[in-house]
Amino acid sequence: MDRHHYYMNIAMAVRKKANCLGRRVGAVLVKENRIISTGYNGTPEGLPNCLDGGCIRCQRKETYSASVGYDVCICVHAEQNALLSAARFGNAVEDSVVYSTLRPCFDCTKAMLQAKIKAIYYLHDWQHPLKDLREQYEQLQAAFPEGVHRVDMPDPEAEWAGCA
Q: For the whole model, what pTM was predicted?
């Protein structure tokens, strides 16, 4: 098994802790071929989980279009959680690689660029829902020094994770 499949399998295991009513995402932060942090999407520590009614956006899906309304969602994305956990425990992230079960959203992309992440590997694609912002999203993703790449492998839990 090559390293990309190895780390993506770990990201799929990490996402099992996700407590979102929408997509369940896992992320692994790797530096010098060592895992320095993991993250999954869910509410901030100490707040009611999404599955327990903690997030209004997830409770009222009919009110918000897919991939819209993140400003009222209290869940922290998997990639953000991986970055924040690394910072919380004193692990430098510059020149790291992120493995995520979902192509990172606009906001996570900006955070990872600012943190100097060098590459992203993802399992399932995500595209910005607004056509006029897709070009800007692609420009942001093109700024990673070692690129953004899809890992081609099966995901037996894609439907459960909300990615099928």
A: 0.92
Distances (CA, A) of 70 to 12, 30, 58, 88, 96: 23, 26, 10, 23, 26
Strands (DSSP E) found in 57-163: 97-102, 119-124, 148-150
Where b means 16+ CB within 10 Å and e means fewer, 52-78 reads eebbebbeeeeebeeeeeeeebebbbb
Mean pLDDT of the chain: 90
Q: At 156, phi and psi to the nearest 5?
A: -65, -15
Q: Exposed, middle or buried by CB within 10 Å (0-12, 13-18, 19+), for 110? A: middle
135 catalytically annotated: no
Per-residue model confidence as pLDDT tens digits over 111-133: 999 999 999 999 999 988 888 88
- Cβ contact 82:104 at 8 Å: no
Catalytic residue among 62, 79, 138, 159: 79
